[in-house]
Amino acid sequence: MARGNYCWYNGKIFAVEEAKVSLFTHGLHYGVGAFEGIRAYKQKKGGGAVFRLKEHIARLLESCKILDLKIPYSIDDLCSASIATCKKNGFEECYIRPIVFTADGPLGVHPGANPPVDVAVLNWEWGSYLGDKGVNEGARLKISSFVRPHVNSAMTKGKITGQYVNGVMAKREAIAAGYDEALMLDADGFLTEGTGENLFIIRDGAVKTTPLTSILNGITRQTVIQYLKTKGISVTETRFTRDELWCADEVFLTGTAAEITPVREIDGRLIGAGKPGPITATIRRDYSDIVRGNLPEYGKGWLTPIA
Question: Which of 12, 42, 54, 159 is catalytic?
Answer without folding.
Answer: 159
